[in-house]
Amino acid sequence: MGSRKGVRCGQCNSLERTRFVKLLLDKNELPRPGMRVLHLAPEKSLAGILSRENIDYDPIDIEPGNFPFCTVRKFDLCEDAANLPSNHYDLIIHSHVMEHIPCNVTAVLFHLHRALKPSGMHFVCVPFMGGTSAEDLGDISKEDAIAWFGQNDHVRRFGAADVHRNLGMIFNIPTTYSMLNYATVKELDEANIPERERNGFTGSSVFPLKKDDLLLQVSEPHKQLQPQESPKLFSKIFGRA
Hints:
The structure is a single chain. 23% of the residues lie in helices and 17% in strands. The chain has helices spanning 16-27, 44-50, 77-80, 105-114, 142-149, 185-190, 230-238; strands at 36-40, 56-61, 73-74, 89-95, 116-125, 128-129, 134-135, 156-159, 207-210. It has a six-stranded mixed β-sheet. The protein has a three-stranded mixed β-sheet with strand order 6-8-7, with helices on one face.
């Protein structure tokens, strides 16, 4: 996979981060019968696990045709995230999705977490790169996207040097990261997760977040504003007549 040799499974096609998600699922005994699962840009290796009998499995993506192995619901995170039902899903999983989203990623993550049940878990995985974070939501060339963000369809870079000025301002995440806080060396070896991915913020880092790990709190249940309500809210906040 790129410059990383021997990391894709020849049987299930999984990568290091996918296998680590599976480890975390097993350790938390997830999913359980009756649970609702939201899976963004579903990996084939996880879809079979998450869609088993008695699981309400909801795989979504903006390009459903990219996933012929399951029935994916068309979903535009920029347009549709605000319409997700609150406190609805027991498990939300996305891996290497947020770097593709051409809109405010904080708002998207907030709405995903809002859709999580109080007892649910939200597995977040983004590709951390060296240096600081950056994004460009304009019309940039594929060459510039590769140079700035590592891939021609990326619009942002999550920097390993300023984690707590990006994701750390949204969620309660550790100041340092190690997979060994979640799994043993033996388990990581058996999952063929290289040592270079185990410590520090990398492309394989997965955050198993709970409902109260959200740092952006609201004082009342989420309500979708109607167009006619916006001027009233503006006046209330800014004191305009």
